[in-house]
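Quick one - inputs below.
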Amino acid sequence: MPDLQARPDLTSPDHQRYLAALSQVADPEIGENIVELGLVERIESLPGRLCVTLVPTSLMCPMADVLVEQAGEALRAMVPATTEVEVDIGWDAQWTPQRMSPALRERLGW
Amino acid sequence: MATAFHGALMVWACFGTLIALERAVALKHPATWCVPLLAGLGAPLLLAAGPAAAAWAWGLAGCGFVAMYLGVGSRHGVSPHLAVEAAGACCWPLGVWAWAWHGDAGAVSQAGMAFLVLTIAGERRELAQFVRLPAAARLGFLLAAGLAFAATVWRCVLPARGAPAGLLWWMGSAALALWLLRFDLVLRAWRDGGWRGHTARCLGLGCLWLLAASVLSLAAPGSPAATAAPHLVLLGFVFSMVFGHAPIVLPALARRQPRHTPRATWPLWIMGASLVVRLAGQQLGEPRWLQAAGVAHAAAILLFAVVMAAAMPPRPPSLRPR
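Output:
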């Protein structure tokens, strides 16, 4: 899991369930899941609506659309059918290696 | 006509269209679709109206391609990998300009290779940001890419004094190939099964072809075999990258995930074997071998298209046209 101490908005039990679902989605090139990679920027749970924002690691690669679709599918499988799931890319946020989980950072030599 | 200009068609019409299409899908700005459209339009214009009309289309497309990078860089900041990809983008209009202005075949060939090699190397460097790279590796990548780019600008702007620039280009290419073989994250998976192992094997072999072309050009410049070096880059390096990336990029473009098949590696080996035949044919001066190699190159590409089409699952009923 990523270093959630630094991101208190993702530490609630509900958020943990959503993160567990999102961890089924792997980046196709690296083979690691998007939670470990630190691509989940924000999860907002509202009545009847679940909004997730992912951070892009590439600005010029069409792969982001695939991740958005797969993340949406993973979340829809765990929420009631009446809940609307929105997954977006937050183009203003910037990915850095510090966003990766401590375990993955160690594995990749950080 | 198409045979005489097959290099220009391959680089600007085929790869220019594909790469610009990939960028347009990612950027989602309506204006960006003009770039792949113009790049693709260059091919029928070349056949119908001649090289001048095609040069206009490809030149405008190349400028549009550079503008895409300027837009992204100004909005999100410049990173080392974006800078290298942007340098590759600049080689597109530079090569078209050299083609239209002085027609030096060596300069045009070098610009076409630089466009593709720097674009691919920049993409691989982007992925390498997940691993901790030594400071020397980070600097080394920029120096190698900078050398390749500077040599290409020199070759295109001063073709009459461009011979040393050709050697500098191959030095930069060799350094980039060695860098990718040592630091590319995905190459760690070459023993894996599935698409991940397939991609790693394609990328690894592609880098070896780039290294082979560079070493051949540096060790025996002007030799018959060295004249095959651009083929080793454009068919060996670039098509290996295409074969390796297709299973990853297709789901983004076609919205369907191809099923893994070991047959997807066959085109890689056919392309490799045909390049060896080409090298031998050049060295021995055997035109029949070159013809056979050309047929086998085409067969490898065609086979890959067939294998990927067969690997695509049926379209879900909800997506079928009614």
